[in-house]
Amino acid sequence: MQLTARKVPVSALILGAGPFGCGWAGDVSEDGATATVEKAISLGIRYVDTAPWYGAGLSEERVGRALAEIKAPEKIALSTKVGRYIVPKASSSSFGDRVEHGYDFNTAAYHDNIPVWDYRKDGILESFHQSQARLRRQFIDCLRVHDAETPERWEEASGADGAIKALASLRAQGQISEVSLGFNSAEYLLKSVRHFPAGTIDNIMIARTWNLLDTSAYELLLECQRKGIRVHMAAIFCSGLLWGQKTFMYSSNVPTEYAEKVKRWEELAASFGLSLPAVALAFAYLPACVERIAIGVTSPEQVELNVALCNADVPVALWRKAKELGLLPPLLEI
User: Fold this and answer.
1) Predicted TM-score (pTM) of this structure
2) What CATH number should be reported for the domain whose range is 10-313?
3) 22-40 pLDDT per residue, tens
4) Are the beta carbons of 287 and 3 closer than 8 angstroms?
5) How many CA atoms lie within 13 A of 82 on its CB side?
């Protein structure tokens, strides 16, 4: 796979609006969300990613409100996700085991709703129409199938009456521009990329499995490069651990081996006069098929800190040294 040491331009960043849903990153106020979007736009970010899952629609509502209030100098691209739609908790019992019991966003102060999962055509269209209303936008630039990464969910999404075909139809009708997938599982992303004919999937969003601590998406990236599928990266800082925070993949439980590996990466980055976050951002952009990188933020200050990481000159020598030290697998050719 082609890995190229290239600088990350601000234009490659996606504003990840997941934290606006008040989950793992804590509470974010209405005004705080708007100010964060405004700061991102002022610094050159032109793409926002959200999903119904983030706060049971709260993130989408806040993104829609912010974009309606802010006078952007040019068009802001917008992506959201399908596979879940939102219902009042009072009526959720009628949805049985489709209610998302793993939902852990703290939204009681804002609404009393909850997501239910559904990767069938009617459920996808319901999710899409709800998102259009919350985002205050009829046309969505990129629509991603979200978290179809169990056997049951994947089969439902991939079937004749499933999410992928529904999204392809929306694209053909001109209601969306791009069909995408957004999973945590590299295994299920690879299965999807191989299952559907070329041209079905425009891009994918990879979370958790391509970063300084986990390179298990390598085979998936190879396949995307072969098929011309563009890649958007997410969770490249491991939900804060690579930014010096004590959280790892949406949890306060940091495995010892990862904490030790972070220290070794910090030492290596410092030896080249670089910060660990700058190296983490550059690593995510190494594969030639990577087009964009999503950064989840909670405040204007965090936007500024992430934008400041862009255009760092990370030399090839650093990556080669990382391989020598066993921080990166030897199969990576840089």
Assistant:
1) 0.96
2) 3.20.20.100
3) 988 889 999 999 999 999 9
4) yes
5) 33
